[in-house]
Structure formats: C-alpha cells, structure tokens
Specification:
about 30% helix; globular; single chain; eight-stranded mixed sheet
Length: about 550
C-alpha cells in the first residue's frame, strides 16, 4: 500500500533578505496539474518556483482514471513508465440495467498505440511519481508550507505575498500560474467568479481493499436489483483497491460518509460475502463551472482553478493536465523570446473551448445518470429497456463519455486537398501509431517543437531556421502511419508542440507551414465557425434535453 512522505519547510531566500530576484514562472499548487506544469517548463529550460501549502501529496485516491492522452503527455516528461507499470489497464466498459447487461464498449479498438485507453491509478501515486521527477529537476524549486495570501499585478510582473511557518515574504515573477484547485486562492484574490451550474445530487465514493477475480473493466449499473433506483460504478485500482461510486440522492446527510455500517452494507450488496476492508470514503456533489477567461494579464489559470466538471467521464484531472501541456510550451516560447505575449490568447481560446466541451459533455452525462424528475427517470429507463435489442438506443446511453482530447477549430489556410481521415483534420490531437517496422511509436518522436510530418526528403535547413523539426516518413516500415494519416507522396502535416494538428496539405510547400506557424505564434486564434459537434455529441445533447424537460410539456 502507498506510504506517504512528508517534506520539510525550508526558509526561502526572501525571508533572509534577498528581495531582488524576479522568477520566470511561479506555480501555485502542487497537485497533478501544477506538477505537470512545473516539470514541463523545466524540460524546456524554464526556471520554476512551485508553492505548495501542504507537506505531502494528496490524501485519498481522489482522481483515479487517467486517459491515453495524459499518458502521452507523461511520456514526454519521462514519468509514464512507472505509472503504466503500477496502474490497472483497462479498455472495456460494461453497462447493466436492473438484472441484465445491455451494452459494452471497447475504448481502444485500434491496437497500434503505445498506451492503453485508460489506466486506473490513485491520485497520490500520480502525484508522487511526478513529485519524484520534479525534485530531481535542476530548474524547479519546491517550497512546502508556503501559502499565497495576497497579490498585486504590475505591467511587467506579478508580486505575491506568501505566508510560511517563519513569517511572510514577497515574491516577484514574470508569470504566475494558478493550479490551486476548485477553491483557488488566486481566483478569489482576483475576485473572479466561476459561472455555470450546480448539481444537488449527492454521491458517495467508497474505496475498499478486496481480493477478487473480477476483470479490469468499468462496470456501471442503472437501477440494479441490489440498490433499486440508484446508479453504481465499480472500478479496480492497484493494491487490490476497489472503488464503488454510488448515488445517494439530494437529501443525503454529509455525515453518511462516516457511517461505516451503511457503507459496508452498500459494498456487500455489490460484491457479496467476499471479505474486504474500508480504505477511504468521501461524499460529494459537484458543479459544472468555468472562468470566462483563463488569462488575466500575467496570471494564468489551469485545471480546477479554471474549470470544474462532473466526475462522470474522468474529465477533471485529464483536462487539467492537457491545460498544462498546452500552456507550458507557450510560456517557454515567450520567455525565450520566440513569441510575444499575444501567443497566450491561443491558450485562452483553445482551453476555454475545451472546458466548454467538457462541461457540456459531463452535464449531459449527469442528467442521464441522475434525472431531476420522476418523468425524466421514466424517459431514461425507456431508453435503457430498448437498448438490449435496439442499436439506436444503445447510442443514447450515457453513463459518462470518457475523456478524449478536445477538438479546436481550424486556422486560415490550414488545410488543402481531399483527405480520407476526418478524425485527423486540423484542430484535432495527433493519433499515435507504429513506426519503423513496428519498433517505435509516433508519440515518441514528437516533443516540445513544431514538427513537420512528411513522406519525402525536404530542405531541412529552412525548417531549422524556423525551429521546425522535420520527421521524414519513409514508405518502408511505416505503412501503419502512412495509411492512418493518408500521407500521399506530396502531402504533409504540421503538428504543434502539444501534439495537435495545426495544418495539413496534399500539395505541400515549405512556405505554407512557415506562414501558418508564424500566424499561430502571433496569437491569432482559430475560426470559431469551424468547431463542429460529432454525431454522438448531438445525440447526447438531444437526449439530455429530453430528460430535463420530460413531464413538463417541452419537446
């Protein structure tokens, strides 16, 4: 089982009279998002001070589902290997209604990616692996028991007041990144509201240790025979730890999380008479809210400080880690004089769009899992009854659309020609696949640079002069990649440092890639009219609205 480490407070230089330094980046919050941000910046040569008001990683398993995209980001940071070795891998989900299994899904039908669709791994392990890497990084200083209590913004820097066990001090930084969670101190000091919706349903998480031969799958029950009227989710974690997540209703008292007899009976109703031991419990309700902007002069917000979502779909920690991956390379570009501050407008545009997508998705899942009225429950149950034999009804089941990379809009002149693969158009995340006779993966070749994916030799010096890495895809040994990306002889892709497709052309010329990259670095944002909903997103939206309006005469 996990062993917590505590880290000592060390007196910072500012408390010893050194007030002259202006740090490149100060990060507030040492959770998964803040640690990812710190490590990513350090990998790109940026010095970081990380302020954490505690002395250890988070208590309790908390976030446990980490997606393939998150593992790919961790791959760049050099921390994916221990997480993959420790985590429970899974791709299959099963859905039950009352006594019957009505559907199942495989999240990774293509088996050419380096990483699985998901691993289940307790948040304290994720934070510890990240922290171990952070503490070895020469560019990062972690300050434990350092709590921000005030701040001021100036034209060229931000100044924060930090409280410690030995007194207060001031700290100056070029950029302050708030990764301090849903109750963000930085957000509150700036008086910035989160806007959105609050859900009143209460849910209970119960983690328990049990030896069982259940497969490593996600099991979700609607109205099961052992808990009528409820919804229940079962997941396996490392160390023989299992998670049960179940709906309690709007009026459940907060004290129920301490009622061990009640919780044990709930667990027994699912797993039978197998012996188990309670490990951690938590009661929660949730909001779907976000900041209007994630960028406020030289203060930037990422993760739960910028947006909070329903837990259905594992989109909280995963989207926050994507925030960090997107923002870190842009801050590095600015601090290394490769772009001006306007580039941060692309972070704001892309990640607010991502938050809006995640909020819409998780809100629709919540309405399906916990309809607000009896009529809504009846409508939902009608879909579940049909799903056993009706393929259209199966598409309407929504027990949490699991985290996938968000889709951004297209830029002017970012696409040319006819392509066979709409899921690799500009604005979408690059997809991993085999390379080099299946001895390597594409994700291993993409780093913190713009990368040109091209199937023939090109004039490399012109791209080096513009800091574009050229990845030549030879036809022999790269058949998987050429087929997936529809890389005909004169085609090319331009991929961003956070592995999104910025442009693709069937008749490529170097100037097309250079012009597009320079436009992006200048801070011009994509055309919002090119954002399109998928067929599944349209279905989920329609079903959620029908559940919400059931029984009140609105169609």
């Amino acid at each position: 089982m996990f062993q917590y480490q505590t880290y000592p407070f060390r007196k910072p230089p500012e408390l010893q009279g050194d007030l002259s330094k202006i740090y490149e980046v100060v990060i507030v919050g040492g959770g998964p998002v803040g640690l990812t941000m710190a490590l990513s910046l350090a990998k790109q040569g940026i010095s970081v001070v990380l302020l954490e008001d505690k002395q250890q990683v988070s208590v309790g398993s908390r976030a446990i589902c980490f997606a393939k995209r998150t593992l790919e980001i961790f791959d760049k940071l050099g921390v994916a290997k221990p997480m993959l070795e420790k985590g429970v891998q899974w791709n299959v989900g099963r859905i039950f209604f009352r006594e019957q299994e009505i559907d199942q899904f495989d999240l990774l039908p293509e088996k050419t990616s380096k990483y699985p669709a998901f691993i289940n791994l307790q948040q304290y392990y994720v934070e510890q692996y990240l922290m171990d890497a952070v503490l070895k990084a020469p560019k990062i200083e972690v300050r434990w028991l350092n709590k921000v209590v005030d701040l001021k913004q100036y034209p060229a820097h931000t100044e924060v007041v930090v409280e410690t066990p030995e007194g207060r001090y001031s700290l100056k930084t070029n950029y302050l990144v708030a990764c301090d969670g849903s109750k963000s101190t930085i957000r509150n000091l700036l008086n910035l509201p989160l806007t959105g919706e609050r859900f009143e349903e209460r849910f209970l998480i119960a983690d328990f240790v049990m030896e069982a031969d259940f497969p490593s799958e996600r099991w979700f029950w609607f109205d099961p025979p052992f808990a009528r009227g409820q919804s229940i989710l079962l997941h396996k974690q490392p160390d023989n730890l299992w998670r049960l997540d179940f709906k309690l209703g709007k009026n459940a008292p907060a004290s129920i999380a301490q009622n061990k007899d009640f919780i044990r009976e709930k667990i027994k109703s699912v797993v039978g008479e197998r012996p188990f031991e309670l490990d951690w419990t938590s009661i929660y309700s949730f909001s779907s809210k976000m900041l209007h902007r994630f960028m406020h002069h030289r203060i930037l917000f990422a993760g739960d400080s910028a947006h909070v979502v329903s837990p259905f779909g594992a989109r909280g920690a995963n989207s926050g880690i994507e925030d960090a991956d997107n923002l870190s390379w842009k801050l590095a570009c600015i601090l290394q004089n490769q772009a001006n501050e306007a580039l941060l407008e692309t972070y704001n545009a892309e990640r607010t769009a991502a938050a809006q997508q995640n909020i819409a998705c998780t809100g629709q899942s919540t309405l399906f899992i916990a309809p607000p009225t009896e009529a809504g429950i009846a409508y939902r149950n009608g879909i579940l009854e049909k799903a056993l034999f009706d393929k259209a009804a199966k598409k309407q089941i929504n027990c949490g659309r699991l985290s996938t990379p968000s889709v951004y809009g297209k830029y002017l002149n970012s696409e040319e020609g006819v392509w066979q693969n709409n899921d690799l158009e500009p604005g979408r995340c690059a997809k991993d696949c085999f390379m080099n006779h299946r001895t390597a993966h594409l994700i291993e070749k993409l780093s913190y640079q713009f990368t040109l994916l091209i199937p023939k030799s090109v004039d490399v010096p012109i791209f080096k002069n513009h800091s574009i890495c050229v990845l030549e895809i030879h036809p022999t040994g790269n058949e998987d990649l050429i087929k997936k990306y529809d890389l005909t002889d004169d085609a090319a892709y331009l991929i961003t440092p956070d592995q999104y497709i910025l442009g693709r052309w069937k008749l490529f010329s170097p100037q097309k890639a250079i012009d597009l990259m320079e436009m992006y670095l200048s801070g011009i944002v994509y055309d919002t009219n090119t954002l399109r909903k998928t067929e599944q997103e349209v279905i989920d939206e329609q079903v959620a609205e029908r559940v919400r309006c059931a029984g009140i005469g609105i169609k």
